[in-house]
Write the structure tokens for this entry.
Amino acid sequence: MNTPIDAILRLILLLGLVGGGVHTLPAHAAGDAAKGADVFAEECAECHSPKEGKNKKGPSAFGVVGRKAGTVADFNYSDGLKASGITWSPDKIDAYVTAPKKVVPGGRMKYEGLEDAKARADLIAYLATLR
Amino acid sequence: MTALVLAAGALLGASPAAQAVPSFARQTGQECAACHVGAYGPQLTPYGIKFKISGYADSDGKSGKVPISGMLVGAYTRTDKAQDEPPADHTHRNNNVTLDEASLFLAGRLADNLGAFVQLTYDGVEQATALDHADVRYARTFDIAGKDTVFGVSVNNNPGVQDPFNTMTVWGFPYTGPAVGFGGGDAATLINGGLEHRVLGASAYAFWDNHLYAELGTYRALSPAVQSRTGQGRADDMGKLGGNTAYWRLAWMEDLRKQVFQAGVFGFKTNVQPDRQGGPSNKYDDLGVDASYQFLGTRKHIGTLYTSYIRERQSNDAAFSAEEAARRRGTLNEFKINASYYYDQTWGLSLGRFLTTGKRDSMLYGDGYANGSPNTSGYVLQADWTPWGKEGSWGAPWANLRLGLQYTLFDKFNGASHNYDGTGRDAKDNNTLFLFAWTSF
């Protein structure tokens, strides 16, 4: 049954699905997790492991989306980060990764910042899969 | 004591230099691959460059770290034609199986901001133990106009051992080489190992905003008594260094994380006075330019390119008056370029070209050279396999291994392609196959 009405119905259904997606991840629906995995490998993996409980120079990135800042056990955080009171929502991660020193003054993450907004969106989509 | 002896000493000492220290990994919680291209020392990533500049002292903040590592290098070496004499006592004219190095390192953080990289090596070919590379440094980071700036001092025993880039001679490709075969010709610039382990120097450096590296230092010769105590022996003492001895370095690095560019200049200037009581000196003025590029990407495919050119101007007054040089003035130039590719931080392929050229001198480059010429050129090919040293690797951070196959080809050796030594030996007869097993723990 390939009537125009059918096609329109399908389109509506599709938009609905995409809309649903947008609702669950408001600011970063456009992120592509597969591309984000590459961004993570290029920019973060030297210091962060995606594996649970594996700390490197930075704490494990496992389950970081939604986590309260400074709460990975057995990791030696800076006082600045512990006192930040941040919960790592996608927006907060986005801001932190753009300019770590601004978001966490006195923090110890020696990372200069990722300017490319698309790369950050992909990265955050990937981080959301680490759970 | 002539420049020739210095040069020969440089060659002997310089060939098997090999580093990778797991105590750094234990101290920082990082895997080898974070700091090293191909997950094995000494080829540094920008992360490793910064670790070295900040004094080997960075740690994961946990106590109980012991800054000690060990290393073994074993090898099979074959030259295209057997050598006229065994290259050392207890070796054969060809097809040697040797324990090139067994080293103990004091490597890592000693206190806040203070770190060391000090190597004690048993040389299985010479069957002797000596203090190898030593670099102790103190570094602190300050905020200058919103930019991180590291200030440090290094006390070390080899000009260039403190350099964080892999373009200069001490840490340049190939990172290990045949102890009982041929890795290069006999003539080498002074900064290329001519003083290693027989001097003590101090330098101050700054690294601004992860970009600009600047360093200035000076060296003094160790007394024969100290050289003897550190295992270098008195016999090859090169004499006193002048008070004007200067080492300097400027470099710019552009770390884009997926790729890195670096370019720099460096210099070393000294007078070597062979007779410690007095008399004429040989003067050396070494000037170098270097550049490198690393493609890091996701670290699945890594490519690197390094190049350097050193021009040495010599005033061989002491050698001339001792009738060991035919002229007072000489020049020696060394050019190197090499590229490597690593797949998955595990499988590596490298290719290097080296070219030494210089002004002829029938006495300085007498026996064993053709036409009084120091010219040597050739290629180095290497394939290697580094199974561990990555996140989640078996036995990390204790088990570390690199197996390699290296082949050095000469198109010119000590002045000629054919019959360079007057007894019919050709440059290609020195082509050397070097199979090595390099492990550290």
The helical segments of chain A are 4-24, 33-43, 79-82, 90-98, 100-103, 117-129. The domain at 28-127 of chain A is CATH 1.10.760.10 (Cytochrome Bc1 Complex; Chain D, domain 2). Confidence is low (pLDDT under 50) at residues 1-5, 11-28 of chain A. The interface with chain B takes residues 38, 41-43, 45-47, 49, 51, 54-57, 76, 110, 112 of chain A (CB under 8 Å).
